[in-house]
Amino acid sequence: SAAMAAQMTNAHRRFLQVLMSHGIMEGSEARKLHRRCCEIHKVYYAHDKLDDFISTINSHLQPLFMQIRKGMSEGDGRAHYALVNLAETEITKMASDYTENELELFRKTMDLIILSENGFASSTDILNLADQLKTKKIKKKEAEQVLKVFVEDKWLSERNGEYTLHTRCIIEMEQYILSNYQDVARKCNICHSLAIQSQVCESCGIGIHLPCVRKYFRAQTEPRCPQCNDSWSCDIP
C-alpha cells in the first residue's frame, strides 16, 4: 500500500545522512549507497527503485523545506543527486558561510560565467573584479584563496584556470538563475534544464548542453538545429 511505501526507515535515514555530509553525489555512488543502506538495515532493496526511495525521503523532508534533487553534470552528462535547501533559496544560503565581500565576489563571478559565451570565466577576469567590490575590496592573494574555497565547497569548479558553476550550484540555484538572469539564462533545448555550458545555434540562438549535443546529434550525418532546422555550426564534441 502507498502508506507503507512512504515509511521512512533507518535505510532512508542513513542515505540522507551520507548525502548531507557530501552535499552532492554522482548517480553511480548514490545507487551504491542505496544498496548499502538497504543491506545494512535489512530493508527491501530493488536496484531500479532509487528514485522511489528518494521520493520517500523527500516526502518527509517537505516540512523542513529540504529536497533531494536530481541534476546533470554539464561536463559529462552524468546524473547527480544534491540536497537542496528550499527555504533559504540561492545566495541567502551562502550568506551564513561567507562574508559580504566574498559573496559579492561570488555574485560577480556568477555574472561573468552566465554572461560568457561558453559558460566559463578566467581567473584573470575574476581577480580583476576583486579590486572593484563595493562592499570591501579584496587583495588578489586573498581572492585566490576565496576562489579555492568556492571550489572546495562545490559552488564553482575549475579547469586550467577557467571557472564554471559546479553541478551542485546549478542544481541548487537553477530557479534563482532563471529568474535573476531572465534575458541571458538559457534552458537546454533538449533536456529543458538550465544550461550554463552550452553550444548555441548561430541562426536562432537556442542553446544545448554539450552532453545533450553529443546524444542528440550522434546519429545525424548532417546535424541540423532542432529548432530552426539550419545546419548546426558548432563542432560536435
UniProtKB/TrEMBL annotation:
Its main location: nucleus. It catalyses: S-ubiquitinyl-[E2 ubiquitin-conjugating enzyme]-L-cysteine + [acceptor protein]-L-lysine = [E2 ubiquitin-conjugating enzyme]-L-cysteine + N(6)-ubiquitinyl-[acceptor protein]-L-lysine. Transmembrane segments: none annotated. GO terms for biological process: double-strand break repair via homologous recombination. Residues 188-229 form the RING-type domain. The keyword DNA repair applies. Its EC number is 2.3.2.27. Coiled coil: none annotated. It is found in: Chromosome, Telomere; Nucleus. It is an enzyme of class 2 (transferase). GO terms for cellular component: chromosome, telomeric region; nucleus; Smc5-Smc6 complex. Pfam families: SMC_Nse1 (PF07574), zf-RING-like (PF08746). InterPro entries: Nse1, Nse1_RING_C4HC3-type, WH-like_DNA-bd_sf, Znf_RING, Znf_RING/FYVE/PHD. Keywords: Chromosome, DNA damage, DNA recombination, DNA repair, Metal-binding, Nucleus, Telomere, Transferase, Ubl conjugation pathway, Zinc, Zinc-finger. GO terms for molecular function: ubiquitin protein ligase activity; zinc ion binding. Belongs to the NSE1 family. RING-type zinc finger-containing E3 ubiquitin ligase that assembles with melanoma antigen protein (MAGE) to catalyze the direct transfer of ubiquitin from E2 ubiquitin-conjugating enzyme to a specific substrate. Involved in maintenance of genome integrity, DNA damage response and DNA repair. Component of the Smc5-Smc6 complex. This is Non-structural maintenance of chromosomes element 1 homolog.
